[in-house]
Amino acid sequence: MLIVETIAKIRRHHFVDGKSIKEISRLLRLSRNTVRKVIRSGATEHHYQRDIQPMPRLDEYRVRLIALLEEDWQRPKKRRLTSRRLLELLQSEGYSGGYDSIQRFVKKWREEKGRNPGPGFIPLRFSPGDVYQFDWSHEWILGGVVQKAKVAHFRLCYSRYSFVVAYPRESLEMVLGAHAQAFAFFGGSCRRGIYDNMATAVDQVLSGKERLFNRRLAQMCSHYLVEPVACTPGSGWEKGQVERQVKSMREWLFTPRPRFKDFGELNNWLAGRCQDMSRNRRHPENKERTVREVYEEERSSLLPFSTHFDGSIERECRVTRTSLITYDRNQYSVESKVAGKTATIRAGADLIRVIKDGKVVGEHTRQFGRDRTIYDPWHYLGLLEQKPGALRDGAPFKDWELPPGLAQVQRRLLASVGGDRGFVAILCAARTHGIDLVETVCGKALQSGTVRGEIILNLIARELDPPAVGPISAPDRLCLNHEPVADCARYDALRLEVDHAAA
Fold it and tell me: What angle, 0 to 180 degrees and rounded to 10, lies between the N-to-C axes of helices 62-73 and 83-91?
């Protein structure tokens, strides 16, 4: 195929310089037929397209390939098979042709399929407080490292008011926690919530619109008086508002990648940005008003609620002999008194609680790494009373951040023989009477230079003694007009009687 520049040279040599076909052929090293064709056609660009692309080896597998493509077309776009993968499937069935034939056929078939608009869509309109839509997206953020965040998106369909919150995971407790934050942000819930068929929401897809929803999600919806509705599989247009919001928020909030030290700081920023955008953006239907103004109108129609739903997930576990429980590939410490017993883990989006006989025996901020062990040294205080020597090398007590006065007392006591037992007694007093009181007493002991366990315990006891009662002045009406005079004669008489009886 001749390039445009070569055609231009031929035309200029012939029509401008008046050269013959023979001269142009010799000058440009082209055949005379080629030069003659350019001059006679008058075209400035030549195209060659083969009318029929022969694919003899694919012909007998054409029906099978079309069947695979029809099945693949029903999948989400990100999960569709590549031409290379389709080639491998056909090769396993005996196809011996090349990859180019498959690639050309697949490309043409998908282009023709994509040009088919399919059935049209019916515009949707919602009433105030009627519906919200929910969806997840995966975004990248910067912290110490580049990290993928799972972002929960909420959208009130009437006012278009949006809320987003980010989590490290996409598990059920994150879904429930995100709803609690969203309804608090909106100031109420809607009568219906539209979801896709995500595994954390829908346990089973039944016929039509019928779904078997997750038990905990159904409890949450019942608490907020929401009717959950799931989309038809492959019909994302049924929650098109939040689908478009995902793309817009990615551009507005996550491009370029935001940088935050933790998810708490990120979520505070996201909530603020959602409020700012609602004030600055016009409502798509009522363009004379902002999204915030329409939301204020809708707010009175939202369903109020008195308490937040506890979205934690419960699970039975056994506490190890080292007073640790395992959840989500991390270990957390609990009170040593429940070591070797069963307990209940109550895991939320941000907090891990361990319950035994209705009492909390362990509480930690949830960790989302792997193979971490999170200690609370106070959980091991009961064992320290029996084994005070473990204070020096015990893993829970490494890097224990104590108040400065108490930490200095610890260093002084552990430097002496038997000081570990005295310091354990001080820690027990701190658990009983409060760390602030013990820190104050340790400061006084350090100032006086009397840093000994028994002395500090004595000072703590003195601080706990009730204050001395001062003299009370009695009113005049209670005072005696004639004070009695002491008379010992009666006592002497009694003493004489006793002496007589003894004789």
Answer: 130
CB 227 within 8 A of CB 192: yes
Residue 122 tokens read as 């019916």
Q: Is 392 exposed, middle or buried (0-12, 13-18, 19+ CB in 10 A)?
A: exposed
- Cα 152 to Cα 139: distance, rounded to the nearest angstrom: 11
Read off the pLDDT of residues 164-186 as tens digits, 9 standing for 90 and up: 999 999 999 999 999 999 999 99
Residue 97 CB partners (closer than 8 Å, separation 6+): 55, 57, 58, 61
Tell me the pLDDT tens digit for each residue of 289-306. Answer: 999 999 999 999 999 998
The domain locations on the chain are: 4-41, 59-115, 131-299, 313-374, 382-463
Q: Which residues contact 342 (CB under 8 A, 6 or more apart)?
A: 316, 317, 318, 319
Count Cβ neighbours within 10 Å for each residue of 25-63 and write b for 16 or more, e otherwise: beeeebeeebbeebbeeeeeeeeeeeeeeebeebeebee
SS3 state of residue 199: coil
DSSP string covering 257-314: PPB-SSHHHHHHHHHHHHHHHHHHSB-SSSTTSBHHHHHHHHHTTSBP-SS-----EE
Which has more pLDDT, 189 or 1?
189
What integer pLDDT is reported at residue 96 of this predicted model? 85
The rounded distance, in Å, linking the Cα atoms of 96 and 240 is 44
- Rounded Cα gap, residues 270 and 167, in angstroms: 12
Distances 74 to 53, 111, 235, 327 between C-alpha atoms, Å? 28, 15, 11, 37
Beta bridge partners of 315: 345
* Chain Cα centroid distance, residue 438: 38
- CATH tag for 131-299 (out of 2.40.30.100, 1.25.40.10, 2.30.30.40, 3.30.420.10): 3.30.420.10
Q: Two tokens at 201?
A: 């929401």
